[in-house]
Amino acid sequence: MSFVRHSGILLHPTSLPGPHGAGDLGPSARHFVDWLATGRQSLWQVLPLGGVGPGNSPYMSPSAFAGNELLIDLEQLQQRGWLDADDLRPDPAFSAERVDYARVAAYRLPRLKCAASRFLAHGDAAEHARFAGFCRRMSGWLDDYALFMALDEQHRGSGSVWQDWEPALARREPGALRAAAQRLAAECAAWRFCQWCFHEQWARLKAYANARGVRIVGDMPIFVSPHSADVWARPDLFQLDEALRPSAVAGVPPDYFSETGQHWGNPLYRWPAHVAEGYRWWAARVRHTLAQCDLVRIDHFRGFESYWAIPASAGSAVEGAWQPGPGIAFFSALYTALDAVAGEGLPIIAEDLGIITPAVDALRKAAGLPGMRILQFAFDGDAPDPAANPYLPHNFDPDTVVYTGTHDNDTTRGWWQALPETTRDHARRYLAVSGQAIHWDLIRAASASVARMAIVPMQDVLGLDGSARMNRPGVAEGSWTWRFHWGQVEAWHAGALAELARLHGRVPAGPAHA
């Protein structure tokens, strides 16, 4: 994959400022794009754009295709006459610093349903035509998603997963599906409306970013949530038992992030079934994601070479074992399905962190994908050969994306505060710095490196400590809530980023779509 040099910021839209409990696709998102452009940043990386699942994780969405309804800007709905001004009065309990997802959902979802009801009853002919066109284009996933969400809402009081629904619905008997779709027609229409609003708002935001020279870097989890429209609609594509429950689940063995490994709980793919249909489901998923983004990071790339399979009955991730993934045949199918030119590569970044073997690295290179390097992993003064660490900038390949840290890492200040002195000493000597502003030291090192893309979490630009960390892998609760506010952003921040972009040849040449 060939890129000119770029730099950018990692920030999920929920972390944006805004009056309604969480960041969304409204004015603050455009303000952020303007700020990126002022700082000569040409990349905005986001986390997966789907709805959140258990623990509020965007990596456990109820759909691999649907957008997060909670990101819809309510002000735009009010401007179109589907909400009243009174509907937009914020809940006084909302925090400017943390997202309370339950409170945000309790505030936003009733207003979205109200807007749907008003649109469906009173929307003009042109709007209804656009809505109908969207529903037709997206019917391959939208119909199943709308019915899944309507049924899930109906069963939510019992706390059940879809496998606990009435057997005829769980097993998708045609008569039961038709009856449910008729009975829940209004609810399904509301969920379709929400997806239309999300996709329209996101498309406008992406177009605005592209016009300002900012490309969107999306994020695609390799696995899907067990409680999702995807698994319910296509159980044949997943490793499920006779009761339609996962027979084995995804995770990783012990690594840097967790001494006991991670038990993610996602159902594993039945890869022979994907091969039999020519990877059609996967091609549709990647194509849909790339319609929303300019390029996409695929999470847990190593799972395409081999994946950690944990028996469903296992008590921990340690009891798992490696199983072979689809390998290069998967990416060859994507090249064909997406009409990609082999010399140019797919617009995909491989998240190749964790336990990376020579076979995983060979697969990434064969697929023509850039990998990732994390500067927080670079320094270990006690290693037998510290200079050989692949995360040190002098060992980078140009076809690389470098980060100070990702959403799974501590902030750079938090990381620095927790380091042993030997590691700090190694970092200070390597970077030739005092470490007093270590976050900017790493930002500068990333920018100066040969890596074609350098991306920095917003927390590091602001110099925030570990309390601003986005995610703690292996910890079920308390993550994904961080927000910033514009009072934390000083004029010199954009100026410093722009200066680094100019010094290191990362100034964007023009609009992202050019």
UniProtKB/TrEMBL annotation:
Gene Ontology molecular function: 4-alpha-glucanotransferase activity
A Pfam family of this chain = Glyco_hydro_77
Q: What class of enzyme is it?
A: transferase
User: What is the name listed in the Swiss-Prot or TrEMBL entry for this protein?
Assistant: 4-alpha-glucanotransferase
List the SUPFAM superfamilies: (Trans)glycosidases
Q: Does the keyword Transferase apply?
A: yes
NCBIfam families noted in UniProt: malQ, PRK14508.1-3
Keyword annotations from UniProtKB, A to Z: Carbohydrate metabolism, Glycosyltransferase, Transferase
> Which parts of the chain are coiled coil?
none
Q: Which GO terms describe its biological process?
A: carbohydrate metabolic process
UniProt family annotation: Belongs to the disproportionating enzyme family.
Q: Which reaction does it catalyse?
A: Transfers a segment of a (1->4)-alpha-D-glucan to a new position in an acceptor, which may be glucose or a (1->4)-alpha-D-glucan
